[in-house]
Specification:
Length: about 300
């Protein structure tokens, strides 16, 4: 429905309505997709499967970008219609999903509600650490990457090509299951924090287009891989039958935390890009320390 409104939108109010409808849809879906995936597979393979899901999502974005460039770059109305058709096709495909019966909902008791609250409190350090890492990587690779390109003299005409290159590089998250054969998820998380820190420091001293693109691509890989192991760790921590609800609460907590990190980055970049990089280093280091503390407490 939201994309039909988007297709027909011709003013601020209609575009705002589309965003509101989409927000309702995402709120309802929150937690359900990850819960369904996790319950549909061998628990030991969860991180690798989440990595493949992320890989296919990224691949879809790359295909969409290429299709838009080739067929819809001069007709935004046709692009909006194609978006609505794609969403409708996704809606139809959901009817072929196999429902999970192992965790049928029962009437929740006070003890179950308290257990959910206790779990959320226990997971707060992990959620906070995750926000500090993933928001840093997301801000730097999605919003401030173009500032870095300008800083090293990359022409604007190359931005689209570089976006596709970096997206294709992030498809490496599909190899996550192979990586986890040699290292535990928690240790891999520590490695990803360290790699992210090195990448941010590398961007500070980057003076050429190749080095800049390389570090941004590494940050993109860190983000996609970390999200995959985070999804696995969140699901493994849940033992009650209200998995989707608990995952939605996790998502709510992280979204609230991102409000503060995004505002902080906004103030930092007003001074300079290097100031934003300095804040990114602080966030990643703090996130690493909190992540290690959570591992020890677990």
């Amino acid at each position: 429905m939201s994309k039909i409104v988007f297709w027909k939108a011709n003013g601020f109010c209609s575009f705002l309505l589309e965003r509101v409808l989409l927000a309702f849809a995402l709120a309802g879906l929150s937690g359900c997709d990850n819960a369904l995936i996790y319950l549909s597979l061998d628990k030991k393979e969860s991180a690798g499967v989440f990595g493949k899901v992320s890989m296919f999502g990224t691949f879809g974005m790359c295909v969409a970008s290429i299709v838009f460039t080739l067929f819809f770059s001069a007709n935004f109305k046709a692009a909006a219609l194609a978006t609505a058709i794609a969403y409708f096709a996704a809606f139809l495909i959901t009817f072929f999903l196999i429902d999970i019966r192992e965790e049928e909902k029962q009437k929740a008791s006070i003890r179950e509600y308290l257990s959910v609250i206790h779990l959320v409190i226990h997971m707060l350090p992990l959620l906070l650490a995750s926000v500090l890492l993933t928001e840093t990587t997301h801000i730097l690779t999605t919003f401030y990457n173009q500032l870095q390109y300008t800083r090293v003299g990359i022409p604007v005409s190359m931005y689209g090509i570089l976006y596709l290159v970096i997206q294709f590089v992030s498809l490496s998250t599909g190899l996550l299951d192979n990586i986890l054969l040699y290292i535990r998820k928690e240790k891999l998380g520590i490695v990803l924090f360290c790699v992210a820190l090195c990448s941010v420091i590398g961007l500070v001293f980057a003076t050429t287009w190749f080095i800049s693109v390389l570090w941004i691509a590494v940050l993109m890989c860190v983000e996609t891989m970390y999200f995959s192991i985070l999804n696995a760790m969140e699901n493994e921590a849940i033992e009650n039958t209200h998995r989707a609800t608990t995952l939605s609460i996790f998502s709510l907590v992280t979204n609230l935390c991102t409000c503060f990190t995004d505002v902080a980055f906004g103030y930092a970049v007003q001074h300079s890009l290097l100031c934003a990089y300095g804040l990114a280093c602080v966030f990643v280091i703090c996130g690493l320390l909190v992540f290690i503390k959570w591992i020890k407490l677990s």
